[in-house]
Amino acid sequence: MTFSRFIGRTLLYLAVAVVVMVSVFPFYYAIVTSFATGTALFRPEYWPQVFSWRNYQQVLTEGSFPQNLLNSIIVATSVVLLALLMAVTASYALSRVRFRGRTLLLLTILSVSMFPQVAVLAGLFEVIRFFNLYNTLWSLIFSYTIFTLPFTVWVLTTFMRDLPIEIEEAAIVDGANPWTIITKVFMPLMWPALVTTGLLAFIAAWNEFLFALTFTSSNATRTVTVAIALLSGATPYEVPWGQIMAASVIVTVPLVVLVLIFQRKIISGLTAGGVKG
Fold it and tell me: Which pTM does this prediction carry?
């Protein structure tokens, strides 16, 4: 190995180490703080002297955080199921059915995802009030699906467009209808793309804050992001920082676990849609 190549690889490893440290350290510090109580919360310790589960016990037993956590699970799961169901059928039409304006329609669908949430907040709020969905979980499911669907349709359309047309033709010869082709032929081949888009949709719905804050007004319907934001005290010293950090860790851990479980599917789904498309 030449000296210049050694220097280049060393700098690369150092850059990767810095990126990993910057990315992981906030979560690590949140974990450390979540085990601290009393005055230890205000001392910069990178390794706690005493581990206390008090913050976790208070978060899970006091207040409405367990209900908020259940609300987030229901909303995020419902958004993923609805988005994937509609995206799979829409991607089949956009990738396999020839009709006038198909490209324009696909670009229009993608452009919807470019609008910032604040720009459509007032109009979407009026729509939710018109359908009497305010302060219900359906308001969040409805609004999240609107912003999740364009990206999901675009990725699945790109992926489905690259599947061999001979597979579809063989299924048609065997007498399969479009629904059978989608569910029995295409979906088993699209698992990497389905896992990727589904997980990204789940993360987006799980972490969303603006719509959850605007369209809900009671603890019974709030999600975890709003519940954590509303944990406060009269003064900075009375803010339950330990409980906030414990709640943040509880909310973050499921996402980390899901990414670690499906990391191979995510990589293959992203590379397939990016390279072939």
Answer: 0.81
* Pair (34, 129) in one structural domain: no
CA distance 130 to 203: 28
Residue 26 shares a structural domain with residue 71: no
Please give the structure tokens belonging to residue 55. Answer: 């913050």
Element (H, E) at 71: helix 65-96
Q: What's the mean pLDDT in 124-135? A: 91
**One domain, residues 38 and 68:** no
**Tens digits of residue pLDDT in 208-228:** 999 999 999 888 899 999 988
Q: Is the residue at 57 inside a domain?
A: no
Give the domain range for residue 15: 1-52
Q: What's the rounded Cα separation, in Å, for the pair 211 and 205?
A: 10
State how far Cα 116 lies from the chain centre.
17
What tokens were used for 105? 């329609």
Q: 105 and 177 share a domain? A: yes
**Cα-Cα-Cα-Cα dihedral sign, residues 81, 84, 86, 88:** negative
